[in-house]
Hints:
Layout: E1 13-14, H1 28-31, E2 39-40
Antiparallel strand pairs: 1-2
Amino acid sequence: MNEAKLSPFCRNLRTKRSFFLTRPPRSADELLEASGHCWCSRTGHAVGDDGEVADTEDCVEGRKCFVPYGAPHA
């Protein structure tokens, strides 16, 4: 199965839990911990390249800056 289909989230979305995952996250519960804090690894902030908030609801396919898991690194 293609890794890009394994996660609905942008590969640049980060949370404290994301550093301990051994595969692409499949649900928000796998990513979020009590604080719910997310950030974009490209900007290093709580907003993405497009200036919008980085979170599990918005960092999904269809967003301008979305990068799927399995895509080549730029």
